[in-house]
Specification:
With about 325 residues, the chain is of the alpha/beta class. The chain has 2 domains: about 5-120 and about 200-315, Rossmann fold (3-Layer(aba) Sandwich), CATH 3.40.50.300; about 130-195, Histone, subunit A, CATH 1.10.20.140. Helix content is about 55%, strand content about 10%. The protein has a 6-stranded parallel β-sheet with strand order 3-2-4-1-5-6, with helices on both faces. Helix 2 links the parallel strand 2 and strand 3. Helix 6 packs across helix 8 (about 170-185), helix 10 packs across helix 13 and helix 11 crosses helix 12. The longest helix is centred in the C-terminal third of the chain and has 25 residues, at about 270-295. The chain is globular and about 60 Å long.
Amino acid sequence: MMEKSFPVFEKYSYIPVIAGPTASGKSALALAICREADGELVCADSMQIYKGLDIGTAKDSKEEIGDIPHYLTDIVDPGTDFSVYDYVSTAIPVIRDILERGKLPVVCGGTGQYISSLLYGLDYGTGDEQAELEATKELEEEFSRTGIEPLYARLKEEDPEAAALIHPNNTRRVIRALAVHKALGITFSEKNRRSKTGGPVFPFKVFMIDWDREELYDRINRRVGIMVENGLVDEAKMLMSLNVDRSSTCWQAIGYKEMLNYLEGVETLEQACDRIRIGTRHYAKRQLTWLRSMGEDVTKIAPDDPEINSKLVLGLCR
């Protein structure tokens, strides 16, 4: 059942969720909203949860954050598995605590599954966890023999809807989607649809900064150069020094796996940077696909000054 009995809901009817593709200015807008409404920021990014991965995941700097409380960043060590269920189980109590203190939670991030889980109150329990674990183990063994290509081809055939949202390099999610189908006899996409029946815990409203595609791609290209200048190579070296399994989620963050090729002498730095730019643009496209699939549940806003847009968002949340 949706909870609305908190002081903040005397002023606002919704909790704002600032979503969108990478490099779209989500953080700047979310921070502006927090300053305007005495809010506190709740991260919805599956890579910013990892400690020490700051530059490659574009975490806000201390100067940008100022005195605004941040939650769900730097909460697990690199190499630690952290599922969507883990995220929701952690985020809901945080949001409840913020509300009980009379503050406005402002959710910000580009991980579609995290956002959908909050917005729709998704329940990712399967009802047959043992069967899914066994299916996952079988698929992991198959992956070790054949690589990801045949598994991803199978996913495109069995569940093209999921395949359109999952990058072929994201081994864990490809295996996860196939394991659900194998264990339950329904596709991962269908399971997600059925999981919406419980409803959200709190009322959320999702906003997306709607950039022209070429302008967005230009922002992405410039951001990659800034990340390298700020120490992305050293951050990738740090991750290598931890001997984190190369199949772990944190290595899926765009920037680190490409820098790995550079550090191992497979590519030049410029070649690695070019692949980061291309990979980031493709990732942004998938993020947009996810958000557009949510239809009228997403409110588009123009890429105006964050201070202007913060007032617009708060007005629409009243």
